[in-house]
Amino acid sequence: MDTELISTARMDLVPLSAAHAEEMATVLSSPALHTFTGGAPLTPAALRTRYERLVTGSPDPAVSWLNWVLRLRTDAHLTGTVQATVTGPEAEIAWVVGAPWQGRGLASEAARGLVSWLTTRPAVRTVVAHIHPDHRASAAVATAAGLTPTDEWQDGEIRWQRATRP
Length: 166
Known about the structure:
This protein is an alpha+beta fold. The chain contains 4 helices and 8 strands, in the order E-E-H-H-E-E-E-H-E-H-E-E. The chain starts with 5 loop residues before the first strand and ends with a strand.
């Protein structure tokens, strides 16, 4: 499975490129973005290395790594990322929006756009996300994208899911 441009009302989800690393290092520079996921902001060089690895794709041919940057159309700024890891009939999604752009509904809009795109892929039957129980903003994004919480936990996070077809 390959990425392609996805457009929403206010932004384009642009397939990730290593060339995005420098701008994205600034977008993702707030330590607060790592409160629930751990880690720390990456330097532009480290992010470039990571992006190069991601765009090369998974070493497992049965797994697709799909990554996009979020570009606002009004000012062409990159504001965050969305991603999907597709394994068999399941797509696990994640999102992050830079601190200066939070609170504007951008993560919800991007997640809805991604889930809508994934539902058009015949192989994808379920979309899931794993969210820390205290991360209310991410729970709101998942809800906006049509996912609902389950009773399943993984690494201290709640599994949210949405069936795309029976």
